[in-house]
Design goal:
It is built from three helices and two strands; from the N terminus they run αβααβ. It is mainly α. It starts with a helix and ends with a strand.
Length: about 90
């Protein structure tokens, strides 16, 4: 009786291990290029908008350019998009 119980437990553990391993390999072991990451794009756009916001009043106004200001809600939207992309990420960059 003990041998049968041991074999059943071993078979059950093998099945569970194979399922977990296949899910991990299919979900977390894949790599993607950096430009396929939503989080990277949110960060790059945020940096570009911050640079624009810094340069716009200092440099561009001295040369007679008048460009529109960026609304504050854009920063909030980009921050949310960065958090969302991190939450939904299922592959590594590499």
């Amino acid at each position: 009786m003990g041998i049968i119980r041991t074999k059943i437990i071993q078979l059950f553990c093998d099945v569970i291990f194979k399922r977990v391993k296949s899910k991990l390999e299919g979900k977390f072991m894949e790599n993607k290029k950096w430009y396929q990451s939503k989080g990277i794009w949110a960060g790059l756009v945020t940096i570009l908008i911050a640079v624009y916001g810094t340069i716009q009043p200092l440099v561009l106004s001295n040369f007679g350019f008048t460009l529109p200001n960026i609304p504050e809600w854009i920063y909030i939207l980009l921050g949310y998009f960065g958090f969302y992309s991190r939450k939904t990420a299922d592959t590594k960059i590499g």
